[in-house]
Amino acid sequence: MATVETKALRKEFIGHTAVDGVDLVVQEGEFLVLLGPSGCGKTTLLRMIAGLEQQTSGEVIIAGQVVNELPPRSRKIAMVFQSYALYPHLTVEQNIAFPLKAQGAPRGSIRGEVEKAARMFGIESLLARKPRALSGGERQRVALARAMVRQPDVFLLDEPLSNLDAKLRTLARDELKQFQRRLGTTTVYVTHDQVEAMGLGDRIAVMNKGKIRQLGPPQEVYDEPADTFVAGFLGSPPMNLFRHDGVLVGFRPEQLLPPGEDPARGPTVTLRFRVDRVENLGADRLLYGTLPDYAPAEKLIVNLPYTVHAPVQAGQTPEFRIGEQDLKFFDLSTGLRVAPRPLRRGQS
Amino acid sequence: MKLVDSERGLGRVLLAPAVLYIVALVGGPFLLAIGYSFSNVTVSSGGGSFVGLVNFRRALADPSFVRALGNTVLFAFASQALVVVLASILSIALQKDFRGKWLVRLLILLPWVAPISLGTIGWLWIFDPVYSVLNWTLRSIGLLGPRDWPVWLGEAHLAILSIIGVQVWRTLPLATVIQLGGLSSIPQELHDAAEVDGAGFFRHLFQITLPLVLPVMLVALLFGFVFAFTDMIVIYVLTRGGPYDSTQVLASLAFFKGIDGGDLSGGAAVALFLLPVLATGAVLILRLARRAEVT
């Protein structure tokens, strides 16, 4: 168990900066998720922590020790790759035993360690098989067992669930979280999937263009986005943003609700919403439309959960309500959060 | 119906040149050689008559045949063993990124695109008894004393070494390129995983990289082996089987016996000894290549 720290970590490739001065501290036993769109530098950051990529400048510190110059094998880390990277010519047992043999574990103890790891992931019956005879979910478990078997200080995962089908992914996510809880190993997890990030992370670091835009617990990052990028990246559909009165105003689609349905924490604001189209998704209804009094030209989305029965049809302009504290304000040019202000009619 | 619309008709037409080529230039001569080997035909005798296994018995009793058989096996095995090792080293070195990589790759491929006969004539000059650039270089850097002057193609053991060397030079480029292809088909994540799992250079090489490239390596080996086993150009240009048949191989012996010597049936019998060895070799290696797996 250990902390992971990066200081002003940079990585430049020819022509572009992949990671642009990242300062990050991962606490002992923490599950930290690096979340961002593809090309945001999250995988490069992870690979620098692993030692698979040499940083241009800055420091990587694992368990209080600067590991800048250490090869991956000396960093006491384990990594699970997107493709699982199982050795195709070795059996499951040999795959799991590989890190133990590589670090020179005594021959007699290897068999026991492998069986222990296999039991933990429920793959004892697969030990004699080759990876190509395994299903996606089984391969993922083998990859996890191989990573866990030598009890690393830090566990690095690079989109380990993205090759599973949707149903299996939800299950695997839950299992992964449980294993991490039980072992208490410090974990850095890379994903572009906000649902995974919200579900797994103790904290989420949202990255864009090589920088961490916001770092915090999932709920905080969701409720109080630090800028328009974070606001637009998290949530499905993402936060609505419209220009008004010299600022960008944002609200979550599920927070604008018919009167009587609103959670009514503190004072509320009433907004007329012009519905152009209704999309029924079963669990939710999505309303596509505009706010005629504030931003008649900007397309917005309202998300009504199935518990809301108010009949809404295209062409209507019902009055909806939103908590005052659920309206977020951002600077037009920088995109950063600014102090809340009252909405004024007709000032778009 | 037009020809291009008929899958069967068009298929036959397109296949015809290849079939014709194989029948006329491979199948026909092959059957003819089998026929000759059981007869007593010579260049001047015309038809000849069936004599059973006489030619094969004669060949086996001939010391130069036994020598040629041994040489064929020796040259093929020795050169391909060297090629496997050298191609592995070369391809792994060439996989790394460095400046001027394309130039080095080009230079390494060059022996493969050069005509074998011309390349071998080049080697003939390199091994020349008087002007050998090899000897002069060795002498000028002090590796050869004033009394040493190896005659590369004139002394039996040196001639054998020279021929193995030229065979390596010839087959190394193809093996290297094939193996480079095999290496680059290994996903980077597997190498990363081996790094993170703690494998050092040799563990990584011998337990991950080489086993994964093995099937492709076997294909390269098969090609190289067939080339080396059946080749006579190198021998023909460099030594003509000499000195005293010490570098004779089956292919060259068959040629000298059957064409130069006029003993068609004897030459055919010698040449046919190549067949079972090559057929077994090909089947074996193909089977091996299929068993080894890459996902």
Structure, explained:
The complex is a heterodimer of chains A (348) and B (295). Chain A is an alpha+beta fold. Chain A has two domains: 4-223, Rossmann fold; 237-338, Nucleic acid-binding proteins (OB fold (Dihydrolipoamide Acetyltransferase, E2P)), CATH 2.40.50.140. In chain A, 24% of the residues lie in helices and 32% in strands. Chain A contains eight helices and 19 strands. In chain A, the strands form five sheets. Chain A has a six-stranded mixed beta sheet with strand order 6-7-8-3-9-10, with helices on both faces. Chain A has a four-stranded antiparallel beta sheet with strand order 2-1-4-5, with helices on one face. In chain A, strand 4 and strand 5 (65-66) form a beta hairpin. Chain A starts with a strand and ends in a 10-residue tail after the last strand. The model of chain A has no long low-confidence stretch (mean pLDDT 89). In chain B, helix 1 (7-37) packs across helix 12, helix 2 packs across helix 12 (264-272) and helix 3 runs antiparallel to helix 9 (201-230). Chain B has 13 helices and no strands. The radius of gyration of chain B is 24 Å and the shape is globular. Chain B has one domain (63-291): MetI-like (MetI-like fold, Orthogonal Bundle). The A-B interface holds A 47, 50-52, 71-73, 77-79, 81-83, 85, 87-89, 98-99, 101-103, 130-132, 146, 150 and B 187, 189-190, 192-200, 203, 207-208, 211-212, 292-295.
